[in-house]
Amino acid sequence: MTTFKRYFTYRLTQSVLRTVVFTVLALLMCLTAVNSSISYQYDFTKTASLESVATVLGILCFLIPILELSGFKNRRNLDTLYFFPIRRERMALAHYLSGLVQIFVIYTVSFVALWLTLVFKTDCFSLEYMPLYYILSLLAGLVIYSIACFIFGEANTGADGILFLALWTFAAYILMYTVRIYVLRELLRETQLWPYESIADWGPLYAPINNLTVIFQNLIETNRQRDPYSYTNSYAARYLSQAYMFAVWAALGLAAAFGFFYRFKRKDAHLAGEISNSIFGYKILIPLYGYSLLLMYSDLDIMTIIVFALMLTGYFFYRRSFKIKKSDIIIIACGILPMILSAILSGM
User: Fold this and answer.
1) Contact 23/106 with Cβ under 8 angstroms?
2) Does the structure show a pLDDT above 90 at 258?
3) Closest C-alpha to 11, from 64, 79, 73, 74
4) pLDDT per residue over 60-99, tens digit each?
5) CA 332, CA 320: separation in Å to the nearest integer?
6) d(Cα 305, Cα 302) in Å, to the nearest integer?
7) Among the listed ranges 141-145, 173-177, 184-188, 252-256, which one has the minimum average pLDDT value?
8) CB 67 within 8 A of CB 95
9) Percent of the chain with pLDDT over 70
10) For residue 194, what pLDDT is reported?
């Protein structure tokens, strides 16, 4: 057996208990949701509960990278891990594949359980779309998992990694939303900005799974077409018309996977536990969030003061000190520029 196979087997063995526990929790969540839904009296109010398995997959794609890679954020653990006679790129591959196996097992078991429940307990859904949804949702999960591995890998501490993931989850959304509402609307002077009107819905990091699920909910839950309160028809049509965004996310996933392995191989071990100086961390996130919010609030009021205060606090946290660099102060001061831009656009 090669060194890689031994280490990969070791990683799988170490994650068995975790996989079993998460599988049981996922089963409970999905079966509770689907049984609750199909117990409704009228067929047009029943749902296939795809959102429950989608939620399981989304949570796993964020959580498993943290659990698989957290050992590399502690110098003491890192010394133990690097003691193994295996090259770094193969070690990265072992952890990456180990996480994928865990996600595959947990998601597959919960998905099959939900599917069988629908097969044997209902007759009002178009279940022929379930296999295609399963395959495409796994691919969407692979994209999100790869991006999460890259983002968490860019941090030097576990706390920074978790915060990076939390902030990047909505970073693209808030930027796209700000551009759509506070720039395009003011420049174009129109209330309808199609196709920009809903493009921000593709911004959150979980968007590929969420939007794919909405599309398939509309295909599978044909019974709900008679439900006057169903929202899936319009949203599904909208997301389907923007299907090119799945290709954009796929490209981002490939780039993130490459970046993860490339950076893992070249990252210095002594950086573990140190300040996270990656360009994909606080250096981008603080001004991105700060400038976006300041563009929304052009008036000098309590909200703008709070945003500036939050930016300053962010740099304190980033530097782990109340003494920040001159460049940080300049970036905070430049926050006046989006406020000026917002005021100009509003006055045009």
Assistant:
1) yes
2) yes
3) 64
4) 999 999 999 988 887 776 666 666 677 888 889 999 999 9
5) 17
6) 5
7) 184-188
8) no
9) 84
10) 47
Q: Is 262 left (phi over 0), alpha (psi -120 to 50) or beta?
A: alpha
Enter the tokens of residue 334.
């430049």
Domain boundaries, the chain: 1-162+205-275, 170-203, 281-348
Determine the pLDDT at residue 2.
Answer: 81
Rounded Cα distance between 338 and 340, Å, is: 5
Q: What is the pLDDT of residue 231?
A: 60
Q: From residue 40, how far is each of 44, 47, 125, 226 by CA, in Å?
A: 9, 9, 14, 15
State the amino acid at position 223 in one-letter form.
Answer: N
Q: What is the mean pLDDT of the chain?
A: 85
The distance of Cα 124 from the centroid of its chain, to the nearest Å, equals 32
